[in-house]
Amino acid sequence: MTDPTPFLHRRWPALADTLPHERLGTGPTPVRELQPGIWVKDEGAYGDGGWGGNKVRKLEWILADARRQGRGTVLTFGAVGTNHGLATALYAPQAGLKAAVAVVDQPLDDHVRANFARLKASGATVHETHTAWRTTLLVPYLLLRHRRPYVLPAGGSSPVGVLGYVEAALELAAQIDTGVLPRPGTVVCAIGTGGTLAGTTLGLRLAGLGDVRVEGVLVNDQLPLDAGRIARLAQKTAALLARRGADVPPETIPQAADIVIATDALGAGYGHATEEGLAAVALGPGLGLPIEPVYTGKALGRLLRVHAAGGYGERPVLFLQTNGPRS
Ligand SMILES: Cc1ncc(COP(=O)(O)O)c(C=O)c1O
């Protein structure tokens, strides 16, 4: 049986008391070669409850933090098809918490409709606020209505949530160490709110793999997401670790120049499908991966294009497959 102690607690035992963790999935997630030079780490396999993928990694730290603060409800935000809101709704009860999700409109497709139906059936309180500015106006009401909730930004990308991808990167480093996969030159993930990119970049640097480029593929134009902001999120996460008792080497803390963002796969905007993304979605069943059009399709489609043009050089490229639907 694999050791259930998080890598962060193994590396800095003091964090076991100061940064609690609620295990919601079983690692390490599987890695395999998809085609010569392209590897995948399938984060969709992470999550022992009704949902898998990158949101579950973040929730392990978020739900434990909410409980530590004595909160009763986690209040979060997203678009109507929000994977994060749905994962929060499904996992909060496991930590003895309620969930409330305020949702804004987005282009509708079958995946979005199915997620929204599941969210409404989950037992979470759903507030249909339609637009970002109406959500902002309603925040004071939502705080009163849910009695001092634990407020979680969209995508779970708070510094506490970002710890989930620091942890996943340490897990990946251990897999590289034991020879499960070769050391990649580049790791590719989608950027929806930036937490996965921020955490993976910080985590690989903490693991001594600072020479591995982490490339985020931007799929969201509804939030300001640039290298400076994502570096600040990583820096806040490093500061949180340091405050709670970890000795974070200063040279491992990412700066804006360490954050790589590809902006050429977004198409018409967040939630608008692209031809390249849909082609990657169509490859999903053959690859045994649940690729969807909003995040992972655009990221994988771009990866395949750049790889075919020799853009990743000699070392392998690793795709972080972050989608994990469960029926
Ligand atoms: C399936 C999937 N992949 C990737 C992402 C992007 O992750 P992040 O929000 O951490 O940038 C999200 C959510 O935003 C997602 O739902």
Molecular structure report:
Helix 4 (83-91) links the parallel strand 4 (73-79) and strand 5. It contains eleven helices and twelve strands. The chain is globular. The chain has helices at 7-11, 15-18, 54-68, 83-91, 110-121, 132-145, 159-177, 195-206, 227-243, 275-287, 296-308, and strands spanning 31-35, 38-42, 52-53, 73-79, 98-104, 125-130, 150-152, 186-191, 213-218, 260-262, 317-321, 323-324. It is of the alpha/beta class and 327 residues long. The model has no long low-confidence stretch (mean pLDDT 96). It has two domains: 7-53 and 157-324, Rossmann fold, CATH 3.40.50; 56-156, Rossmann fold (3-Layer(aba) Sandwich). It has a six-stranded mixed β-sheet, sandwiched between helices. The structure holds pyridoxal-5'-phosphate. Residues 53-54, 83-84, 155, 157, 190-196, 295-296, 322-323 line the site of pyridoxal-5'-phosphate.
SSE layout and pairing:
Blueprint: H1 7-11, H2 15-18, E1 31-35, E2 38-42, E3 52-53, H3 54-68, E4 73-79, H4 83-91, E5 98-104, H5 110-121, E6 125-130, H6 132-145, E7 150-152, H7 159-177, E8 186-191, H8 195-206, E9 213-218, H9 227-243, E10 260-262, H10 275-287, H11 296-308, E11 317-321, E12 323-324
Helix pairs in contact: 3-4, 3-7, 4-5, 7-8, 7-9, 8-9, 10-11
The structure holds pyridoxal-5'-phosphate (PLP).
Pyridoxal-5'-phosphate binds at residues 53-54, 83-84, 155, 157, 190-196, 295-296, 322-323.
